[in-house]
Amino acid sequence: MSDIFDVYLLEAVLNGLLLGGLLALLSLGLNLVFGVIDVVWICYAELIMCGMYAVYYLHVQYHWPLVLAMLAAIGVVAFLGWLLHQLVIRPVLNAEPINQLLVTGGVLFFLQAAATLAFGIEFKNLGVTLPSVRLGEMSFSAARLVAFGAALGGVIALWIFLSKTYLGTAIRAISQDRAIMPLMGVDPGRIFALTSALGGALAGLAACLLVLQYDIHPAIGLSFGPITFLICVLGGLGNMLGGFVAAFIFAQFIAVGGFFFAVEWGYVIAFIFFIAVMFWRPRGILGK
Amino acid sequence: MRLFAAALCAFALAAQAQQKEIKIGFIYDVSGPFAGGGSEPAQIGTKAAIDMFNEKGGVMGYKINAIFTDAQSKVDVAINEMTRLVDQEKVDIVAGVYSSAQCVPMVQQTESRKKFLWLNVCIATAVFKDRKLNYVFRPQAHSDQFGAWSCDYINYYAKSKFHSEPKNLRVAIIHEDGPYGVGVAAGNESQCKKHGMNIVLKEGYSASAPDLSSLVTKLKRARPDVLLHTGYNPDITLFLRQAKEQGLRVKAIIGHGAGHSQIDKLRQTFGEDVNYFHSIDPAAGQLLDPKTLKPGIWDLTQEMVKRYQAVKGPGELPPHVSMGFNNTWILLNDVLPRAIKQYGGFDSEALRKAALDTDIPVGGTLQGYGVKFYPPGHQLSGQNERAFPVVMQYVNGRARIVWPREVQTTDPVLPFPKGHSFAP
């Protein structure tokens, strides 16, 4: 038994922690949008894919400095988030939830097909590799450490924005009572548009960090979309802190489960845990 | 009345002209992850072969009407497209197919419809093994051979290159968990065990997994000398990236086709880190020694290279181009003419008989192998018994054949030289 608790187990745990940071970052924007607008962007991972392409083309094709390309990509995806709201979500705001799901599902397929036509099926990558961070026999991805830091920073920044600014307060108020706030002078349309842009910006931030670790292709969203959605549901849809916690729990199941058993079992255990939580707390770990 | 007769005549001629074609439905993936893993190059190779035939008038006067469909890297789409090709497009032959995950269920469907299916790319042995298929044929090598080849290769060089007895070599086998990966890994395990090698880890994973760090950690703990890997894309790039970041060290990495054969793409991502990597696949035609081929074959190879590069530009041609081209060429140049001449047409029965008569010696095809299909009653009936893959090694982006010895064009570099990113 003692040899199980070796340095490799510790490496698996720490890698799970870093994966958790990545998943937490992914879930942040989706939770924000659902929490405020009450609509699930099924196409959220495809917005991230658009951001990854934006970084790639600006940096590799147009030779922008990487940081500038990333900032621009965040702006591009924020704009796409705003556009998604104006063109697709707004007309179905009062429709049945299933219709809202279907319409964003349609956008998912549209974006995948459009990316295939526009960018081709070639796998693209930045050709940028961040150095590894070594700790004795253990070694970690610097890109994941950055993602972990960005997730933490993102949650803190979002918390400050939502709790300390007028706009943030308006957003929280709208999310609590959509009907009453217009009577107090808050324009829900503007708040929804702003939230969508903010959700898009968070997707753009995730794109900037994913592009350092993954190849870009039109179907990349399929690797992250379902798992991001599950994490949001596990934490409590719309609950950003819940999503954050759920991401780390889910990631530990994947990493440590995959270490003790086959890699696939890590995912199986994580999904079993998800199902069990849904029976125990149908609204998620921190859902109300 | 004269006008009516002329119209009737014109209609009859038009009808006859319409009949003078052979409809072949090709299924490849030109979107989704399989496209970049070799399916698109295979389709380009296939198109080149068909164009060459149509430019010289088709097959025995029959124009080849090729209908290409996109399976989108999805099994259900592939099956639906096959159904559409057979039921609506009324194709005479279904062909192509990149992924073994698509091939395995598809053969059941075509077989029950008695529709002739010609498989160009997918390799899983499970497609044929003990299924008693009558109308499915595959000139391509099968996964058991891929799996055995890598073990034979390291067994041969164990003493001279690794300075170790085969039984002392630590081998890890990792694979995507579809029929392709599982098939190759089973071949790996069986053959490496025959050579007495020490298999320290064997594990599958999903090709769409977003994280493989725990697999890398387990490999680090298992400390293999040789890593045998079977995967598509993007799982291969994800694994290699995480393996490098986490400091995995091995003496050799041997891939088994698909993503490992897309060396241009791997180099774009990993640069010099993929130097001295291996991939096992049927030979890319352009790598073979022309002297080992029958007269005229090398000219065909040159034409294939020219046509592919006209589409994709210069660069190393992945073996999948040859698979698409060569295996389509065998169908059009050998099987179809015999079906028409000896068996009176190109319905499934005629094609089946013609395919079973195929007897091309080694060196008679663009990829060097011969063609003779296992007969009905054999556990692999419909599989080409003369196909074989080769072990290629990549040095500075160029592929060289390093195994088997009979077709080897250069001595392999084993183990990874000092200073290599994955070298111990």
Can you tag this structure with a few keywords?
heterodimer, A: 288 residues, two-stranded antiparallel ribbon, B: 424 residues, alpha/beta, Rossmann fold, 42% helix, globular
How would you describe the overall organization of this protein?
- The complex is a heterodimer of chains A (288) and B (424).
- Chain A has 288 residues and is mostly helical.
- Chain A has one domain (2-115, 141-280): Orthogonal Bundle (ABC transporter involved in vitamin B12 uptake, BtuC).
- In chain A, 72% of the residues lie in helices and 3% in strands.
- Chain A is built from ten helices and two strands.
- Chain A has helices at 7-37, 44-61, 66-89, 97-119, 142-164, 166-176, 188-210, 221-235, 240-260, 263-280, and strands spanning 132-135, 138-141.
- Chain A has a two-stranded antiparallel ribbon with strand order 1-2.
- In chain A, strand 1 and strand 2 form a beta hairpin.
- In chain A, helix 1 (7-37) packs parallel to helix 5 (142-164), helix 1 (7-37) packs antiparallel against helix 9 and helix 9 (240-260) packs antiparallel against helix 10.
- The longest helix of chain A is centred in the first third of the chain and has 31 residues, at 7-37.
- Chain A is globular, with a radius of gyration of 19 Å.
- Chain A starts with 6 loop residues before the first helix and ends in an 8-residue tail after the last helix.
- The model of chain A has no long low-confidence stretch (mean pLDDT 89).
- Chain B is of the alpha/beta class and 424 residues long.
- Chain B has two domains: 16-141 and 294-356, Response regulator (Rossmann fold, 3-Layer(aba) Sandwich), CATH 3.40.50.2300; 144-281 and 390-407, Rossmann fold, CATH 3.40.50.2300.
- Helices cover 42% and strands 16% of the residues of chain B.
- Chain B is built from twelve helices and twelve strands.
- Chain B has helices spanning 2-19, 33-55, 75-87, 100-112, 143-157, 179-194, 213-222, 235-245, 263-270, 297-312, 319-343, 348-356, and strands at 21-28, 63-70, 93-96, 116-119, 136-137, 170-176, 198-205, 226-230, 252-255, 278-281, 390-395, 398-403.
- In chain B, strands 7-6-8-9-10-11-12 form a seven-stranded mixed beta sheet, sandwiched between helices.
- In chain B, strand 3 (93-96), helix 4 (100-112) and strand 4 (116-119) form a beta-alpha-beta unit.
- In chain B, helix 2 (33-55) crosses helix 10 (297-312) and helix 11 (319-343) packs across helix 12 (348-356).
- The A-B interface holds A 6, 8, 11-12, 15-16, 18-19, 113, 116, 121-123, 125, 127, 129, 132, 134, 137, 139-143, 213-215, 217-220, 222-224, 227, 251, 254-259, 262-264, 266-267 and B 30-33, 35-36, 40, 73, 177, 203-206, 208-215, 217-218, 220-221, 233-234, 237-238, 241-242, 244-247, 265, 268-269, 271.
